[in-house]
Structures are given as structure tokens and as C-alpha cells.
Amino acid sequence: MAVMTFPDRQTVLDFLRENPSATTKQEIARGLKLKGKERATLREILKEMEADGTLERTGKRAWAQADRPPPTGVVEFTHLDDDGELIGKSVGDNGLFGPEIRYAGPSGKPKAKAPAVGDRALCKISERDGEWLARAITVFEKRLSDKLVGLYSQTTRGGKVVPSSRKEKREFVIQEADRNGAEEGDLVIAEPKPVGRRQYGPAYGIVTEVIGHITDPRSASLLAIHAHDIPTEFPEAALEQARDPHPAAAEREDLTAVQLITIDPHDARDHDDAVWAEELKDGWRVIVAIADVAAYVTEGSALDKEALKRGNSTYFPDRVVPMLPFELSADECSLREGELRRCMAVEMVFDKSGTKRSHRFIRGMMKSAAKLSYEEAQAAIDGKPGGKAGELLDSVLKPLWGAYAALSKARDKRSPLDLDLPERRIVFDENGEIQGIIAKERLEAHRLIEEFMIQANVAAAESLEKANSPLVYRVHDVPTDAKIAAFAEFLQTIDIKWHIGERPQTHKFNKLLEDIRGGVYDEMVTQMVLRSQAQAIYSEENLGHFGLNLAKYAHFTSPIRRYADLIVHRALIRALKLGPDGLSDQSAARLEEIAEHITTTERRSMAAEREATDRYLAIFLADRVGAEFEGRIMGVTGAGLFVALAGSGADGFVPISSISDDYWMLDQAAMEIYARGSGKTYSMGQTVRVRLKEVTPLQGGLLLEMLSEPQPAPKGRAEARKAADAGGRSPRGRGGPPRRGKPKFNKKTLPKHKRRSRK
């Protein structure tokens, strides 16, 4: 006769089903009224049920049934379903488990941050009509990802994966059975190997995918793409829709007689905007025509879902990961010269001072009169016409430049923030090898197109606001009080006054930049102005655009590469009754969520682009170790100095401990480090000479050695610092009472030869 024990497996399972909120061992034991040895039996039963998959561990001493989520738990949102709803699953110790859960809004504050694909959130979870719903209590600030993208190398005991990101501190040991075909030098994706809750020693991993090899010239972008989960493959349904497009039916105005032209980079594959202007008696008429992407990417279609998922195109030095397939963006949605194309256009009338008097939106048919590069258009205006540019000089280009001259007057009066930051381009040969790095030339033709696009974007926001239509704004908030206070404190260290009690205004920043242009503090102040600014975002609420000094602004001019523009096109179609394919009520209700999502994808793309560029620059400089470079200090921290190298613009790091035998102090307000005693300084914007000591192409890192001597402290500051040091206070007067006992030192700031002597 079998001996019966209490509790048994079925008793525990029945209790959990009847009491889903009881998730911890203590709560289960209390509910079953267990004591003594019965609690030990419960512990063994829970371990067995976890091992066979009946239960999923969700915490140190907490479990949930594997086929149903807990009432409160962490949910990872993984994708959008066919209806555009955000779907996720519960998170356990061994990954995701249980049924799919639909996001049903916040739990509490109606304006709380909404999660996006890839986010994790603590949620209240409930079942309704057979469907599981999650209401977010809090969205975790950082995306939690266990995977590691890096370089696989063989070791005596198997292999290991070294991370490709400088921010990632983990390494995975890979056992022979877990390398899944990875060889020395392969770029891989690895995930942690489940080893239970308690683990000692090195972290073990499993290679899940080989994405390339370190010797591949294109590896820098591959690493960034996979590290940031940027989708590269289009679903077959989306590709089929792109190959066989069926545009939405709509009445269209005939614009084929208007000599609209495209002006783009010389290597552009698609052309999504065209411009034209004519002089009036008292001003100018300008038309900006944009490819009618909304007609082809209809709401809820396979293309639309994939475009929303991506949010935007991502531009790497050697490739583009597009938001829409090239079959569409470089064909039907490209305004090719001499070919009939559908467009969304805005006709704007300006007076001679560049002030807009009126505008109207048009859904039309157009035929581009010419495809010009910026260089061709500029050369024609500068007196060196050739080819199509020469043919259209009088009829098209001169009126465009005349209209731009008028708009420039209004722009100067508006005084948008004028930060003239240098841009560089990495040049590749046909094999993908880096040929060189060149500075991008900023032509008047670039400024003309930029200003016309800004005016079209403003017109879109104005029309939608006038129609009381929902829309996604492009907003750039005013700098915060804290950033302005820090900026003013910095300016005080170089004897420049800045009134912090007044509302920040762009013309004041511009006046400051003009005053210091060409002087010793030029680069330093420009960088600090940039750091004082907020980041631009997408929002369903209008906060204005501080940088452009505009009260209302939306993105309208690039629906091929930005989902925000596609939303604005659909909103215009609906508000102005331009067709049946306008913004739906369902999408209008989700604009807050969409705005957050596309802001996140934009940040993701920017981070990936920056990482890839850093790696390519490191690859380019890998054979220059030991060479000397001119550079400029672009960042100052307690750990060291960030220096941008002249010519390439590559960023390298000088550890503070390697500079000299002095004890270096950080003056945060002045953005300087100074030597205690002598007061000599290295400061933001200072031109220095450095030697390249080490290059790590995998992480895109450059280690530099400082060759330039520090500068003397500015007049009066050395004395103040000496007094502060003698009194035990910081140079900004934020000291505290003397420490008792043995003083503590930051080893990073001590010269290497002095570290061992301090015990």
C-alpha cells in the first residue's frame, strides 16, 4: 500500500488554479495550512513541477502556471498582430512563457508611458472572454535583452564570445556542444545558457546564430544591425504587395505641365520630393511635391505593418536598411525623370519678404522635368551650367533661387538655432573597403531644399490643426532650467554672462555663437550649446519646435523613410477629403502609442548608425597605431578626455591616469580637468596633439596618448583653485567637512606609479 503524503502534486496544482494570486512558496504553504515537514515536501513538489514544465519560475521563490500568466508580472511585448495590437508574453526565469497577452492600456495614470515592441513592463494581467489582457503599471526604462552580439574565438576549453559593444561587460564561455558551427573569427549572436538560479564562476552561453566574419568589410554595420534588432528581411506578403502595387483610387489634379524637378545626392536611389517656383507680381509661388506613399501603403496592409515596425529607414555608411522595400521606394514611389507619378503636393504663396500668405494641398499626377544632383544645380547657378541643369537654368533653377532668397529673409528674421556642425562621409570602393573620409560640403542648394521642406512641413501642421485633425507633431522642447543653469555656470568660467531668469530664445544663442565665432572658445561654446538642447521627439501633443523657432511643426516630406510622415499624409487625406485612404479612427486613437514607438525606433537607428560609423573609423585607423594626430577635446570626465581627431573626426579616449604624474581634478562646471597645485588645465574645445596607442575595431574604440602640455589656468582661477584645494573644498565651492581617518583616493585619477604606495 502506497504511503500518502500531504501535500501532493494535484493538491498544489488545484490550489494554484483556484488561487492564481498566490505565487510564492510562503503564500502557497499558508493557503494549504502546511507546517514543518509538509513545507519541505511542498518545496520538492514545486521543484519537480518546475523541472517538468508545469510551473514557470518568476522570482526567487515565486512560480506561475506555465499555461497561464500570473495576475501581476513582467510582460515582454514582442510584436504587433494583424490588427496592429501590441502583443507580449509573461517573463520567467527561463524566458517567455504562457499564452499571448494583448496590451490594454495603462493601469492608473492615463498619460503614463506606453510600451513599444521590445519593451518590458510590470503589468496587471487578467482574462476576459478567453483573451489575456495586460495593463502596464510601469514600463522599464531600459530594454532588457539577454542576448550578446560579439566575436567568437576558440580557447583551450572550448570557446568564448567577446561583446561588440563597449557598454556590454559580459563575456560568454561557449562549450563545444553549444557553438553550433561557430568558428574562430565569426560574428555571432549568443544567449545565456540556462543553468538554474544559482550560478558560480563564468557565464555560459549558447551560440544561436552566425551573422558574418570579422574580416568581412561590411561587418561593422552587421554588428550594429543585430545588436539593435533592426529588421532587415521583409515578410513575403509585404514584398508581394510592393512588387504588384495597387494604389488607392482618388481624384487627382494634373500637375504634368509644371516643371517640377528633383534635387538629391548624386548617388540617391529614390527621389521622393520635387520642387518648382515662379515669380508673381508681389512674391513667389512654390510647389513642393512628395511621392504619394499613402496610396500604395494602405493602413493595415502587410507593408503598413512592416513600415510601422521599422519606424524609419536606417542609414549606415555602407548601406541602407529601408522602411519600405526598394521594389516600391525606388520604383512607383520614386519621382523619376519623365515618368508619370502620383504625388501629394502643397502649393504655397509667399510675399517678397518670404512670409507665407496662403497654401493648399493637392493630390496630383506629376512628371519630373529633371533629376539633378545638388552639385549640378549649384554649378548651374554659379555660372557653370551643363546638361539638364543648363537647359532649365532660366525657366526652373533661377526662379527656385529667387524664391529661396525671399524665404531666407523670413528665416533670418525667425532666427532658428544656427549650429554649423561639420559632417563627414566614409567613402568605400567596389569591394566594400574604406578608401577615405571626406568632409560633406554644405551648398546653398542643400539649404534651398531644406527650407522648402520646412515650409511644407509647417503647412501640413497648420492645415491639420485648422481642421481639428489628430496628428503626430515633430517637437523640440525648450531647454530645461537645469540645463540652462549648467550652461550659464559654464559660461561664467570663461567670463561670459548669461541671464538664466529669462525664457531661452534661439536668437540669443545665435548672438552668442556669432560673438565667439573664430575665437579660442568657438568649438567649446558650440558644443555646450548643443548639449544644452533637448532631443527632438514625435508627439501627439504640440510643444512647438524650439530649434527651428516654430510654433507648430510636423514631418510631411519623407514618407518613404519615416512612418511619421505617412501618418501625416493619411491625416491630410482624411481632413481635406482627398481620398478614401485617410487616417482611420483606430489609428487616430493610437497616435500617442505610435509617436512613442517611432521615437524609439529613431533613437535605435541613431545609436546603430553611430556604432557602425565608430567601427568603420577604427578599421580605417587600425594600421596607424603609433601615428600622431591633431585633435580637439570634445568631452571631459573624471576618467579622462574624449578627443576628436582632425580629418577623420574619429573619437578617441585619453585615460586621466596616463596624462602625467599630476593629481588631476574635474571641474564639471568649466568642463575642464586641472592639475592640483599648478592649476594647469585641459578643457573642452582645446586643440591638442595625441598619439594613437591602441585600436579595437570590434568595439570601435581608440585609445590615445596625450602629447600636448596643459594650458595655464585662466587668470584668477588658479588662485581660487589653490585656495579651494588647501581648504579641502571642490573648485566650485561645494566642499564638505574634513574626512576623518585615512583619506580615500580614486585609483583612476592617480598616476600608475603612485597606486601601489597607497595601502
From TrEMBL:
Coiled coil: none
Positions of the UniProt region annotated as Disordered: 708-759
GO biological process per UniProt: mRNA catabolic process
Reactions listed under catalytic activity: Exonucleolytic cleavage in the 3'- to 5'-direction to yield nucleoside 5'-phosphates
GO cellular component: cytosol
Enzymatic class: hydrolase
Record key words, sorted: Cytoplasm, Exonuclease, Hydrolase, Nuclease, RNA-binding
Residue stretches of biased makeup (Basic residues): 737-759
Enzyme Commission code(s) on record: 3.1.13.1
InterPro entries attached to this UniProt entry: CSD2, NA-bd_OB-fold, RNase_II/R, RNase_II/R_CS, RNase_II/RNase_R, RNase_R, RNR_Ribonuclease, S1_domain
Domain (S1 motif) ranges: 626-707
GO-annotated molecular function: exoribonuclease II activity; RNA binding
UniProt signal peptide: none
Compartment(s) where it occurs, according to its Swiss-Prot or TrEMBL record: Cytoplasm
Task performed by this protein: 3'-5' exoribonuclease that releases 5'-nucleoside monophosphates and is involved in maturation of structured RNAs.
Family in the record: Belongs to the RNR ribonuclease family. RNase R subfamily.
Protein name: Ribonuclease R
Organism from which the protein derives: Hyphomonas jannaschiana VP2
